[in-house]
Amino acid sequence: MARVADRLRPLNPADEAEPAEQSGPDERSTPPQGRRGRRTITFGTVVGSVGSVAGSAARQVRQIATAPIRAAAARPETTRRRLFVTAVVGVVLAGALTVFWWWSGRVDDQRATAVAETTRSVEELLSFDYRDADIDGRLALVAPEFRDRYASSVRDTVTPAANAQSSVVRTRVADTAVVAESRGEVTLLLFLDRTETSAAAPQPVLSGGRVQVSATESDGHWLVREITTI
Description:
Strand order of the largest sheet: 1-2-3-4-5
Distance between the termini: 175 Å
CATH architecture of the domain at 104-229: Roll
Helix content: 55-70%
């Protein structure tokens, strides 16, 4: 009966409370520790990610902010190079223009001189006076290759006809045109006005004509090389 009584004896309330007190705190404290650990890890990861993003953004901001400074630092060398190239190009262009103007002026001067001297020579070569048969002065106006032909024509044809009719012919160049020109050579088209008097016709007779004249430069003078009636 004692054993049965022992078995049926109620438990000590203190004994029942103590396990509850021991197990209670363990069950309540364990989950909060776990939750606090997970929150710490998550916060650190977020902080690290935010720091990485912030650092990358800061580098980009620095690059953008310092771009004008880097460009300004590189600009002087580029500017000097451009100025040098511009100066060289300017000098070359100035030289080319100077040569062009010089050559153009030389060509213009050559043309003007050739036209003026050839015009005077033709006026004298195509004028005749039966009282003056000397042609030595005229031959100085003619190129060597044309000299013999001109002298032969005057001596054999012009002089006898002028003497027979007592003719005096005055030739004047009314207008000129440049047909062709090159260095030291020119071909001109001359428009002539001629006045002729003779024993049979003492009153001046006016006539016109055209001739093509080739001239060449020799020792600074323009000499007639060919005269062709057109």
